[in-house]
């Protein structure tokens, strides 16, 4: 199975310039693929064309060379062209799994036009988000409770991939080493970005997926590549911390300034980790990027 570990607090965003373009998240009245996927597969007649438009290829953002020919993307592009009729705009993401919609850079007047479309369910201005921290296995009583009943920490989380929407991850952290290789679950599908900050080999049997989302931040001109890293690498430490809490290896020594503070363990140490970086050190994050991360 898959677990989504979402570590953020929502805020609000208010534009000071009523005429300035802004990023809007547009949700359509159509159901997202995740809501009717089971129905599609039940009616499947043996050919691929009923479900392949949602499965192959997976939705990718523009910042990572997104696939523009998908069925869902074409619907979104067609709606924008029809409603805005030759006007300038910039679509950042198409969302297909979490919701059927997209994020787009438009003026308030253009946003008003979109809101009046019969196909649109809602439209909201993109807003900033912040990180929030979680608790520990000891606080939850796992060593004496669930672990003991389910066979101990050696099997806790086996076969599960936990997805983290956070500030990324430091792949060199000992909590994510692959000393005892685990088989990656067959049902997991994802990619591992390779950049100068996140070189080949950063992913392993423990860290099975890693990518980043920053289109909304980049379009605002506030993304600082030297501080925030255009990669899954964690410049803040929060994402590494939460990933270690939830899924870090068992029995990892904690040493700070030469002092030993015992051994650490994740809540599900046998589980795998997939990172979807959408929060950043210097500015937090924006909902459009977070939704894109969740959609993946």
From TrEMBL:
Keywords: Hydrolase, Protease, Serine protease, Signal
Domain Peptidase S8/S53 stretches: 157-294
PROSITE patterns xrefs: SUBTILASE, SUBTILASE_ASP
Top-level taxon of origin: Eukaryota
GO BP annotations, alphabetical order: proteolysis
Pfam families: Inhibitor_I9, Peptidase_S8
InterPro entries: Peptidase_S8/S53_dom (IPR000209), Peptidase_S8/S53_dom_sf (IPR036852), Peptidase_S8_Asp-AS (IPR023827), Peptidase_S8_subtilisin-rel (IPR015500), S8pro/Inhibitor_I9 (IPR010259), S8pro/Inhibitor_I9_sf (IPR037045), SBT (IPR045051)
Limits of the Inhibitor I9 domain: 23-131
Single GO molecular function: serine-type endopeptidase activity
Similarity section: Belongs to the peptidase S8 family.
Listed name of the protein: Inhibitor I9 domain-containing protein
Organism: Genlisea aurea
Lineage: Eukaryota, Viridiplantae, Streptophyta, Embryophyta, Tracheophyta
């Amino acid at each position: 199975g898959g677990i989504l570990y979402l570590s953020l607090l929502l805020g609000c965003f208010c534009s000071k310039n009523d005429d300035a373009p802004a990023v809007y998240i547009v949700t359509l009245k159509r159901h997202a693929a995740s809501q009717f996927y089971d129905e599609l597969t039940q009616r499947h007649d043996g050919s691929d064309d009923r479900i392949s438009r949602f499965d192959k290829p997976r939705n990718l953002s523009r910042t990572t060379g997104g696939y523009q020919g998908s069925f869902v993307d074409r619907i979104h592009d067609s709606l924008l062209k029809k409603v805005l009729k030759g006007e300038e705009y910039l679509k950042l993401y198409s969302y297909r799994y979490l919701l059927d919609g997209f994020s787009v850079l438009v003026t308030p007047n253009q946003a008003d036009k979109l809101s009046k479309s019969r196909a649109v369910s809602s439209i909201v201005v993109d807003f900033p988000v912040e990180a929030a921290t979680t608790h520990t296995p000891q606080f939850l009583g796992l060593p004496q409770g669930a672990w003991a009943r389910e066979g101990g920490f050696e099997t806790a989380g086996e076969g599960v991939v936990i997805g983290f929407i956070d500030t990324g991850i430091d792949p060199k952290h000992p909590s994510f080493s692959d000393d005892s290789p685990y088989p990656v679950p067959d049902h997991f599908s994802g990619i591992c970005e390779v950049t100068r900050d996140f070189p080949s080999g950063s992913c392993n049997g423990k860290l099975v997926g890693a990518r980043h989302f920053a289109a909304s931040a980049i379009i605002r001109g506030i993304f600082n590549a030297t501080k925030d890293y255009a990669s899954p690498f964690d410049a803040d430490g929060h994402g590494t911390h939460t990933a270690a809490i939830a899924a870090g290896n068992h029995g990892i020594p904690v040493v700070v300034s030469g002092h030993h503070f015992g051994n650490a363990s994740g809540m599900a140490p046998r589980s795998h980790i997939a990172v979807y970086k959408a929060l950043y050190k210097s500015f937090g994050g924006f909902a459009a990027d977070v939704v894109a991360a969740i959609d993946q």
